[in-house]
Structure formats: C-alpha cells, structure tokens
C-alpha cells in the first residue's frame, strides 16, 4: 500500500509581488520538506479579486508604500532579489496563459523555471508584452534545444497556443476553482495533510513557518537561508520608501 503524502497546491499570478517572493522562498523551503507533493496552478488574480470583491493593495497609496517597503526588507533578509517595477500593475492574461500552456505541455521542472524568471520584479521588464515574454523564456529553452532558432520557435509556439480555446478554458477553470476554494489573493497555498482529505488554506508569502509546523516539517527561517546562500542580511529600506 502506498504511503499517504501531504499535498500543497500553490495558486499564483505573476502580477503579484508577493507571489514572486513566495515562489522564491517556497522553492527554498520545499527542499527540506520530505513526504510532501507540490504542484502549482496559475490563476487570474484580478478576476478572483473582482469576483470576491477584494481590493488591490496598489489602489491604496499608504498600503502600496508599505507593501514596497515590506518586500524590500524581506529581500534584504532573505537574499531574494527584488526591485519594484515602475509600471505596476500590468495585464498578465497573456503571460499567465503562456504559463498554463507550459504546464500542460512541458515537464514540471521546465514549467517551474519559467515561473521563477525575474524579468518583472527584478529587471523591470513589462511581462504583458509578447516580445518581453519571448526574450525572457528563449534563453531558458536554449538549454533544451539544439539551436537558438529552435528555442525561439518553441517560445513562439507557446505564445501562439496562449490564444487557443483549450488554454483559455483551462486557465479559466483554474481561476474559477480558486474562487470556489475560497481564495481571495495571491499567493495562496491549499494544503492537505497526509491521509486527510480536508483542504486548509494558507494565504501570503509570510506563512511558511505556519505551514512547516502544520505539516511537521523543518523551517530554517529567512536569516538562515540568506546566510547559507552568502547573501547580505542587512535590513535596510534600499529606496527610503517608508
């Protein structure tokens, strides 16, 4: 008989800076979490928030200023690179549909590497633009393709797939599913304990200690991870945004 395993499903949208930070940190912690199955589901955060009548943080100047300062501090403590983009928010329907297509047709490690790209929240490149998506993903596909032209063609094929009905439908299903599960923001983690069919919702990129305790897994902490990676742990508001 197979041994029951805990499960974590991360719902995300690349427009969310906390999804970006959460994904980066999650990838560190999950290396220490044995007996846990991990998966990811793209959703349209704006669609979810519109349905549940949630308000974006960026709509409130004081909350937006705090959000940026908070993320800057988390970046300094954790060593995760972060730079708030000049143009925020942008429409992420296209990149999220591309990621949906990648999830359907590529191996999980390739898909996760695509999520992890730093174009928007480090290099300030507008990921709503097809040319930016292409320039961001082509180098990654180059390591799996025989030529640069083959890598470029592969990325173009996914940009083309993003407008296909089956991709649109799958992305909509994920978004509707998120709403049905009570999700109201990103990142959100839907968790099952081993042998437990009940689903437990954890929201935010600052809930990893809670998740670790809930699943009886180790939690190294922000400072420990930053120090082990050689990153600075100096806590400074790099852009004096407070």
Automatic annotation (TrEMBL):
Could you say which EC number(s) this protein's record lists?
A: 2.5.1.18
The entry's keywords: Transferase
A cellular-component GO term for this protein:
mitochondrion
Q: Does the keyword Transferase apply?
A: yes
Q: Which GO terms describe its biological process?
A: glutathione metabolic process
Q: Name one Pfam family in it.
A: DSBA
Which SUPFAM superfamilies does this chain map to? Answer: Thioredoxin-like
Q: What is this protein called?
A: Glutathione S-transferase kappa
Gene expressing this chain: GSTK1_1
């Amino acid at each position: 008989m197979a041994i029951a395993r805990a499960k974590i499903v991360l719902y995300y949208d690349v427009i969310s800076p906390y999804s970006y930070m959460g994904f980066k940190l999650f990838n560190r912690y999950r290396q220490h979490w044995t007996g846990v199955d991990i998966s990811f589901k793209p959703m349209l955060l704006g669609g979810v928030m519109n349905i549940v009548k949630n308000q974006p943080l960026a709509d409130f100047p004081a909350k937006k200023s705090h959000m940026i300062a908070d993320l800057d501090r988390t970046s300094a403590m954790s060593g995760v690179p972060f730079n708030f983009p000049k143009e925020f928010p942008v429409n992420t329907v296209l990149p999220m549909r591309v990621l949906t297509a990648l999830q359907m047709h590529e191996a999980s490690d390739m898909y996760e590497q695509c999520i992890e790209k730093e174009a928007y929240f480090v290099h300030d490149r507008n990921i709503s633009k097809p040319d930016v998506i292409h320039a961001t993903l082509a180098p990654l596909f180059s390591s799996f393709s025989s030529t640069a032209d083959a890598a470029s063609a592969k990325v173009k094929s996914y940009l083309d797939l993003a407008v296909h009905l089956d991709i649109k439908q799958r992305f909509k299903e994920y978004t509707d599913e998120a709403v049905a599960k009570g999700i109201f923001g990103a990142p959100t983690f839907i968790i099952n304990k081993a042998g437990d069919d009940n689903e437990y919702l954890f929201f935010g990129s600052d809930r990893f200690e809670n998740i670790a305790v809930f699943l009886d897994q180790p939690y190294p902490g922000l400072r420990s991870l930053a120090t082990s990676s050689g990153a600075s742990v100096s806590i400074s508001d790099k852009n004096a945004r407070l």
